[in-house]
Amino acid sequence: MISSRTNITSRAVMLWLAAAIAAIGVFPCLFAEGAELVLAEGGQSPYVIVIAEGASSSTKHAAEELQHFLAEMTGARLPIVTDATPAREEEIILGNSQRLAALGLPVDWVRLGDEGYLLRTVGKKLVIAGGNLRGNLYGVYGLLEDHLGCRWFAPGVSRIPKYDRLVLPALDEVKIPVLEYREVFTFDCFDGDWSARNRVNSSAARLEEKHGGKVRFGQGFFVHTFERLVPPAKYFDQHPEYFSLVKGKRLKEYSQLCCTNEDVIRICTEAILKAIASDPEAFVWSVSQNDWYNYCECDNCQALAQQEESQMGPVLYLVNRVAEEVEKHYPDKAIETLAYQWTRKPPKTLRPRRNVIIRLCSIECCFSHPLATCDSRANQAFRKDIEGWAQVAPRLWVWDYVTDFANYLLPFPNQRVRRANIRFFIEHNVRGIFEQDTYDTPHSELAALGGYLTAKFLWNPDYDEEQALSEFLEGYYGPAARPIRQYIDMIHDHVEKNNIHVNIWAGPSSPHLTDDMLLAADSLWEEAEKLTASLPEVHRRVAISRMSVDYAIVERARLAAQAGKLADSPLKEVALRRFEPFMKTLAESGLTRLREGRPLDLPTYRGELARIFGLER
Q1: At what angle do helices 602-613 and 572-589 cross, to 10 degrees?
Q2: How far apart are CA 297 and CA 286, in angstroms?
Q3: Strand locations in 96-250 (E)
Q4: With 50 as the cut, is the pLDDT of residue 375 above it?
Q5: DSSP state of 217
Q6: Whose CA is closest to 339, among 319, 366, 323, 368?
Q7: Beta-carbon count within 10 A of 565 CB
Q8: Distance from C-alpha of 465 to C-alpha of 450, rounded to nearest angstrom
Q9: Burial class (CB in 10 A: 0-12, 13-18, 19+), 597
């Protein structure tokens, strides 16, 4: 916590800027017009917040957020007024208004778009001006975070500094995000206020009109839509030719579409046009393969696939045809398709239309090392494909993966690669990133930390990695930050030193874990719990986060027991000691799944382990 006597100085802010804001379209001029502004002192402020009389919902919310957090920081509650009121010397002008026009300050609204903003001091006035959709709101959060030290680590956990005297230096900066789509797909991070404050426009988050909405997919058209577009139950019996031919047989179940069939193209197009008409506020609709293989092997599809040297050829042919018709009626909408598994390789000559988004998927990769440098075959192949798509896709997004889907609680050493991978994507012309974390249960392995780091790097790919990690650990775990940092360093150092590749289906026997490491980890988390014993809420966060190590210990002990080697396992004693605390925390945590798609039956899970460990009552 910053001392209540702390002031923000011009020099400190300049150093902050130099270190932290270089990569997201920031164009600072540190010699802005005007002197330092004393925003509040002794719980009082001469300032008002000015918005246009007809301000957007998100701009009104931005004013309320600014008012709220300035009051929390200083005790001074600034009035919110409209530009219909008489001008005064000390004002925070928020958004486009008559008051801003009277200043004669040039603003390139087109360049700022929906999410960019400028911060500028003019005399004794502070201007926060951005797009009416989210730009003004993001400008407020940019001021609060980048210049006043606020942080929102997780829903309900923040750092809001206190000031007796709040001084803002002269400012002149513009920020425009590099990425148009920033998705932190983590259950613990779906809260709308948290998402907006961390400037992510997640399609899955509970972002409302007051937050400026979000990048939204058409209802029911997020991914894997072939079966929805042309349902086999409706069409197969009369028209088996609409579906994929595999080994000489048309498939009704686990089928794909025959993408070169003209009737299929027509049906898909009609379905998408109907969907857009019924959901006109959405931006993007997916026309994409089902989540399995069985692509069509008919002569026409395979002739195109061979010509394009990729099974993406027939799929992109269909997608382009749909997108061409959509553009005639809805030129501001986009059609998305996946470059995923059997369609990941870019076609040789066929090019996506300008209103087509290619969403490239990294599912096969190693995630314990950066995608750009990892020597695994999977990562080498992915690099080749993203390099190809970067050359031909006018709009390239990525579907990335940041959890262990087979074991949500298993330690997964990927915190150090998050920024590196996001930067790698951006270097290859990626404009949108979907980071698929644990989305169907709270409290998976270090979920809040992963969500915070991902949000920080999606907004600003040059955000200092060490700063992001340290500020989260200190803000979220308090006095337990040090041993938890030691634990995080230990598991990451191990995979880096030994070049161990970890994919998203790693199990308890994976070499990225060792018995000795887990014994050391148990001691570090024991220390973390002792350090927070007098802080109930922080202690609870530590206990929930410790479940990851407990899970790894009991599951490895289970494997030893099943092999008849539990008596000789160094984990036996700690597994038996941690069994009851682990089960108690698991029951109280609200975690509902240990792996993707499979609800946790806690009594059965507990009973199985108790029987194996000889703890049955």
Answers
A1: 170
A2: 23
A3: 117-122, 125-130, 151-154, 157-159, 165-168, 172-175, 181-185, 245-246, 249-250
A4: yes
A5: B
A6: 319
A7: 12
A8: 12
A9: exposed
Going through 302-343 in order, the beta strands assigned E by DSSP cover 334-339
Alpha-helix residue ranges (DSSP H) falling in 132-222: 135-142, 192-197
Specify the residue for token string 């001392």: 3
State the Cα–Cα distance between residues 471 and 466, nearest whole angstrom: 8
Task: Name the maximum alpha-carbon separation found in the chain.
Answer: 83
Pick from 274, 285, 491: nearest CA to 368: 491
d(CA 418, CA 56) in angstroms, rounded, equals 34
DSSP element (H, E) containing 254: none
Count Cβ atoms below 10 Å from residue 392 Cβ, excluding itself.
16
Instruction: Report yes or no: 241 and 257 within 8 Å, Cβ to Cβ.
Output: no
pLDDT tens, 91-106? Answer: 999 999 999 999 999 9
Q: In which residue are the tokens 């161990």 written?
A: 500
Region 322-342: mean pLDDT is 98
A 10 A CB-CB count for 308 gives 19
pLDDT at 5 over 90: no
Quote the tokens at residue 289: 């393969």
Q: What is the pTM of this model?
A: 0.93
Tokens at 108, concatenated: 């390139």
